Amino acid sequence: MPYISVNVGKTLSDEDKIKLMEVIASDISILPGETAKNTMINIIDGCNMYINREQKNLAFVDIRVLGSFALEAKDELVVALTKDITDVCNIPTESQYFNIAEMDGWGSRGHFHK
Predict the structure, then answer these.
(1) Residue 99 in contact with residue 63, Cβ under 8 Å?
(2) DSSP code, position 46
(3) Shortest CA distance to 9 belongs to which of 52, 68, 51?
(4) How confident is residue 12, by pLDDT bands cut at 50, 70 and 90?
């Protein structure tokens, strides 16, 4: 179950949040074996985001996946998400940051799984 949290430094309309969720859900299939069906997506808009002590219109995307994926697949995912965030949120490429954490296990359904 991938978990994707998107933090943006601007307020999004409900329509834009749905658009963003839909494109993220679609993009996750870039990673082999991952699907929209089992992906948890959290969109947090209106964040006070600062860089170099200045408030900016930034996006930070935290992606957590079970297992590991080839560098090429992760790069393809970041490329797709960058385009989608630019299109939906009007945040330029140079203002977007990504983290992909590959986990060896996590808890769900009351237990820790590997």
Answers:
(1) yes
(2) S
(3) 51
(4) very high
